[in-house]
Write a structure and sequence with these properties.
Order of helices and strands of chain A: EEHEHEE
Radius of gyration of chain B: 21 Å
Largest interface: A-B, 26 and 24 residues
Order of helices and strands of chain B: HHHHHEEHHHHEEHHH
Distance between the termini of chain A: 22 Å
Largest sheet of chain B: 2 strands, parallel
Number of helices of chain B: 12
Strand content of chain A: 35-45%
Strand order of the largest sheet of chain B: 1-4
Oligomer: heterodimer
Radius of gyration of chain A: 14 Å
Strand order of the largest sheet of chain A: 4-3-2-1-5
Distance between the termini of chain B: 56 Å
Structural class of chain B: alpha/beta
Structural class of chain A: mainly beta
Helix content of chain B: 40-55%
Shape of chain B: globular
Number of helices of chain A: 2
Chain lengths: 94, 219
């Protein structure tokens, strides 16, 4: 499986309301960050959680956000960041 | 309980005079399922009750000491540190730990960077290394606030950081587990790995505090 994104790419987390065992927290949905690293491919947790195999596997990335891009009223230096793991099907180029 | 009106908690007694509180609820569905599967596995001879007990014992007695050994090794062995930061699988195998299919992501504290770990969605934690997560790590307020106002949370843990130091929060939300590699404190030149281990605490490896002050630990 070829990763669609590479470190340094700007990405937007999809704003999608999806029920179930979703590993993309609401606070990052719709936000823009930068790919920090490609983690590798893993079983899709949205299927795995319900007794399926998790196939096809999904590429997983670590995405880096500036805290001030996540929270309008973030109280802290502009350099502060948050990193989180996001599966490829939750990403779009930004 | 006529005129006995108040709304504070009674941690050590109940109003009917019993020394302990009874469980207010019947077992959860998951608890019944767990007991059923466990009893079946034992009955069919797949595992023994003692093997299950032993596995729980190992999990629950595994604590910060293993993590401290790993960190102290990284502080004293630059080659191992590189391996731990970039190929943690191989580094952990040297300690007999195989976390696969999970992967350990080691994040390093430096002069300019402080790392802090949270799992906002549940309580993901590097259990093979640090054991059972502390109660506060699983609480909703820690999970919600660590990503929203990390510096305020750190301050409540007694960790006040200057604005010149970047705070990096890691949400452990999927397939990685995180270990903070604390910064080796000043004044520990020449210390052995064993002496250094005594400085390294659980909380410093989650990233809510620094390691122990070597001045207080010496001797």
């Amino acid at each position: 499986m070829e990763p669609r994104y590479k470190p340094g790419d700007k990405v937007r987390i999809l704003q999608r309301n999806q029920p179930g065992h979703v590993r993309t927290p609401i606070y990052v949905r719709g936000k823009t960050g930068v790919i920090e690293r490609i983690v590798g491919s893993f079983p899709n947790p949205e299927l795995l959680a319900y007794g399926h195999t998790g196939l096809p596997y999904k590429m997983l990335y670590r995405v880096n956000f500036k805290q001030s891009d996540l929270w309008d009223d973030y109280e802290g230096p502009a350099d502060d960041t948050l990193e989180i793991e996001i599966y490829e099907h939750w990403l779009a180029p930004a | 309980m006529s005129d006995h009106h108040h709304d504070h908690d009674h941690p050590t007694h109940t109003h009917d005079g019993k020394p302990i509180q009874e469980d207010p609820l019947p077992p959860l569905e998951a608890q019944i399922l767990e007991a059923s599967v466990r009893e079946l596995l034992i009955e069919k001879g797949v595992v023994s009750a003692d093997e299950i007990r032993r596995a729980i014992e190992v999990m629950e007695t595994r604590g910060e000491s293993l993590g401290a050994r790993i960190v102290a090794r990284a502080w004293t062995d630059p080659e191992f540190k590189e391996k731990l930061l970039h190929h943690s699988d191989d580094a952990l195998l040297e300690f007999g730990i195989d976390m696969r299919p999970m992967e350990l992501c080691v994040v390093e504290n430096t002069e300019d960077v402080h790392n802090m770990v949270v799992c906002t969605l549940c309580s993901c934690y590097p259990r093979p290394i640090l054991g059972i997560p502390p109660a506060w790590y699983k609480r909703r307020d820690y999970r919600a606030r660590a990503v929203r106002e990390p510096r305020a949370v750190l301050k409540e843990f007694g960790t006040v950081l200057p604005d010149s130091k970047q705070v990096r929060v890691h949400d452990s939300n999927a397939d990685l587990r995180y270990l903070v590699l604390p910064k080796r404190p000043e004044g520990t030149d020449g210390w052995s790995a064993q002496e250094l281990e005594a400085l390294i605490t659980r909380d410093s490896m989650i990233g809510v505090s620094d390691v122990r002050d070597p001045a207080e630990s010496a001797g």
